[in-house]
Write a structure and sequence with these properties.
alpha+beta; two-stranded antiparallel sheet; Jelly Rolls; 142 residues; globular; seven-stranded antiparallel beta sheet; 9 strands
Length: 142
Amino acid sequence: MQRLDPDKYENDPELEKIRKERNYNWMDIITVSREELPDYEEKLKSFYEEHLHLDEEVRYVLEGSGYFEVRDDKDRWIRILVEKGDLITLPAGSYHRFTLDEQNYIKAMRLFTGQPTWEAHFRPAENLEIRKQYLEFLVQSA
């Protein structure tokens, strides 16, 4: 996880450097709150269902806070608090989920390489090649 200055995200040279280095050429901003997100309750439920993606999940918190929960190499949950200024990258193929904290509000930039894919692969997804690659990465990193 990295820390950036979210108050200057529109013209932040550090964010631009990261985007260029990682080839994040697409972005949008999502606000997760009862007032801002259509189908709020259903979306929160889907965010919290354990899943993986074929691409990295990159979120830059501009306001508010929440929790990402990620499976470790022993299949235990690790809870990560993300707050204003945090840039988190979850590897492709890693099981994770997201929930809000007691503020019930987060505004985050979503970054992608190429066209965004919104498809979540719910557990079990062990047959996917990206999951096999991620598990191999964990073994090599140990």
